[in-house]
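The records we work with from here on pair a chain with its fold. These numbers are not coordinates but entries in a learned vocabulary of local backbone shapes. To see the layout at work, look at the sequence and tokens printed below.

. . .
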Amino acid sequence: MVDSHLVLYNLYMSQELDASRARASFAELSKRAAYGGEFTYITHHGRRTVAVVPASAAELLEEIEDVIDLREVEAILDRIAAGKEDLIPWVPGGISTESRTA
């Protein structure tokens, strides 16, 4: 399990670099993320496009997304079981135009 307190503490420790500067110092950026918990946003034409972050931060984000997805699936299954949601049969090559109620 990821230590979320550490990740949240480090959220304020960030910097921005344009892509060419980030490319030239990628090894250093990755070390600072891995060992120092630093976040570096890489910009393109002044807009943040990607980030170099500690693996623990990315793993925490994935865990949060998994929980959200699971809750959404459970809610849909509850609606199907209650007859409040139509099923859309899946067919190879796309979605069937015929639907049926559970």
User: Anything to note?
Assistant: The mean pLDDT is 85. Strands lie at 14-18, 39-44, 47-52, 86-87, 90-91, 94-95, 100-101.
